[in-house]
Amino acid sequence: MATPAISIQNVTKVYPIPFKREKVTAVKDLSLTVEPGQVYGLLGPNGSGKSTTMKIVLGLVSPTSGTTEIFGRDSTAVASREEVGFLPENPYFYKYLTGEETLNFYGKLCGLSRARIRERSKELLKLVGLESAADRRLGGYSKGMLQRIGLAQAMIQEPRLLVLDEPTAGVDPAGSREIRDLILDFKTRGITVLLCSHLLEQVQEICDRIGILHRGAMIREGKLEDLISIQSQTELILENATPALLAEIQAMIAASPAKIVEQRKPQKTLERYFLDVTTDQP
Amino acid sequence: MTATATAPAPSTRHQIFSFTRVTAIASNTLLELVRLKVFYFLLIFGFIVIGISFFTSKMTFQEQHQALKSASLGAMSIFTWLLAVLATAMLLPKDIEDRTLYTILAKPVPRFEYLLGKFVGVLLLLFIALSLMSMLFLAVLYFAEQGAIEQTIRTTPPQDLPAALDQVHRSTFNSDLLPGIVVIYFKSALCAALTLLISTFASSSIFTVIVSVIAALIGHIQPIAREAYLSSGNAGPLAKAFFALVALAMPDLRALDLADDVIAGNVIPMLLFLKTIGLGSTYIGVYFLVGYFMFAGKEL
C-alpha cells in the first residue's frame, strides 16, 4: 500500500487566550488520511478548524497533541515541505516583482538551479495562462491572475501535494473555472490536492473525497458519491423522449411499487449559463 | 475517482542551511525596502550638510569644520537609527498580514534562514544608506577643506604655510573619521537586531516602533540613571539587581558612540574601537538569536 500523501493522527490544537485562563480548542482529536493522487475537500463553516488543520499540515502551527505526516515524513520537519505547494486564501505576493521574478524567488527558496527555475517558470506561466503577463509587476495583476501566479509558485518545485485554501475566493466565474480546470489538470498529473473551499458546487465537481469539520471535529468523512447519493432514489435523464414513451414509462412506474418523486427539465448551472453568455462567440 | 498515476518524488535534497535561500530573501528584502522610497531622507541629510557649510561660512575654518562634522555625524547617527527601526519594524508584521510569510515558510525554508535573510537585507540597506551619507559628507568636507586651503595660502606668510596647511588638514580629515562611521553602523545594526527581536512577538509595526524607541531611550539614559541612583546610597539589593538586569538586556548605547571624539579630533585608540565593535557585535548576535528562538516558537 502506498504511503499516504497526508496522514493526520489524533491531532488536537488548543490555543490559550492571552490574559485569560480559558483556552480555545481549534481542532479536536482529528484523524484523516489523504491517499496519493486524491483531491480531498476539507469543508466546514468559518471557525470550524479548517485553516488550523492546513497550517498544522504545513508545519506553520504545532499540534498540541497528535502527529501529522506528509508522504511519511513528519510535517514539522522543514524537509517535508519539499513535497508541498501552498496557496493561501487571498495571497498578496510582493507587488514589485513581475510574474517571472516571483517564480524565480520561490524557485530559489526551493533550491532549484537557475536553469531549472527558467525551465519551470516557462512551463508554469504557460500552464496558468500568464505567459503574456510574465514581465508585468504583480501590482497590476487582477485577482484571478494573482491566484494563478499563486498556483504557479505553489507548483514551482514540482511538489506531490498541493494545499489550496479558498483558491477561487473573490475570483469571477470565468477565472474561477480556469482555476478549477487547473486543479483538474493537476489531478490528471497525479498530484494530490487538499482543498478548502466554501464553494460546495466546485468542491463537488473536483473532489474525490471530502471531510466536514464542525467545531474542530470531523463530523462526516468519505467518498463524495457515497456521502451525497440518495440510495433509495434513481435519476433517469432522457434526451428526445417522445410523449408516448414518457406515458409508457409513467404507466410502468404506476404499476410497480416505485413512485415518481419529481419530474422536471434538467437545468444547466447558473455558472454554466453565465459563462455561455459572457464568453466571446467565434 | 483517484488518478491512476501519482506524481514522482522530488529529485532535490533538502539542505539544512542554504546560502542561496538566505541571499534570495535578503536581496528581496533590500528591494522591498528600497521600493518604499526610504532614501528620500538622504535629501534631508543633504540639506543639513550643505546648509551647515553655508550658515557657518563666517566662522573660522576650524569652527566651520567642527560644526560640519558635528551636524553630519549626528544626522548620520539619527538617520541610520531611524532607518534601522522603521525598516525592521515593518518586515515581519507586513509579511504575516499579507500572508507572504506563509508561502515562504510553506517552502523548505527554515525559520532561521527566513529571519537571517530579513536581517541581512536590513543590514545591506543600512550599509548603502550610510555609505551614501558618508560620501556626501566627505565630499562637502573635501570642498570645505579646499576652500580653507585656498584662503590659508592667500593669507598666511610662506614660512608659516606648512604648519597652517597641516592644521587645516587635521581639522577636516583625520584617520578617526572612518572608525567613527563604522561605529555608527554597528549601533544602527544593534538597534535593527533589537527591533527584529521585538517584532517577533509584537502584534503590529506601530507597537514594534514604539517599544524599540523606548528601548533605545533606555539604552541612552540608563547608565546615567543607574550611576545617579546607585551613588545616592539609597539603592537596595532589589534596585541593584533591577539595574543590573536592565544593563544586561540593553547595552549602554552611549558607549557605542564615538562621534564626540571624532568631532573633537581626539585619537580613538584601536583597542577602544575593537572593544566597541565587539560589544556591538555581541549584542547583535544575542538579540538575533533570542529573536530566532521567539520566532521559532511563534504560531503563525
Textual characterization of the structure:
The complex is a heterodimer of chains A (282) and B (300). Chain A has helices at 50-57, 99-109, 114-127, 143-154, 173-188, 200-206, 224-228, 243-254, 270-278, and strands at 6-16, 23-34, 39-43, 65-70, 73-74, 84-87, 161-165, 192-196, 209-214, 217-223. With 282 residues, chain A is of the alpha/beta class. Chain A has two domains: 6-228, 3-Layer(aba) Sandwich (Rossmann fold); 243-278, no CATH class. The mean pLDDT of chain A is 89. Chain B is 77% helix and 0% strand. Chain B contains eleven helices and no strands. Chain B has one domain. The A-B interface holds A 2, 15, 35-38, 55, 58-62, 71, 78-79, 81-94, 96-97, 105-106, 108-112, 150, 153-154, 157-160, 163, 187-192, 208 and B 1-10, 12, 14-15, 18, 20-21, 23-25, 28, 31-32, 35, 98-100, 102-110, 299-300.
Characterize this entry briefly.
Helix content of chain A is 33%, strand content 22%. Chain A is of the alpha/beta class and 282 residues long.
Give the helix/strand class of chain B: mainly alpha
Q: What is the overall shape of chain B?
A: globular
First-residue to last-residue Cα separation of chain A = 49 Å
Q: Which structural class should the secondary elements of chain A be placed in?
A: alpha/beta
**Helical coverage of chain A, percent range:** 25-40%
Q: Which residues of chain A sit in consecutive blocks of at least 5 with pLDDT less than 50?
A: none
Radius of gyration of chain B: 24 Å
Order of helices and strands of chain A: EEEHEEEHHHEHEHEEHHH
How many domains comprise the coordinates of chain A?
A: 2
CATH topology type of the largest domain in chain A? Rossmann fold
User: What value does the average pLDDT of chain A take?
Assistant: 89
Tell me the domain tally of chain B.
1
What average pLDDT do the residues of chain B reach? 85
Indicate the CATH architecture of the largest domain in chain A: 3-Layer(aba) Sandwich
- The total of helices of chain A stands at 9
How many distinct beta strands of chain B?
0
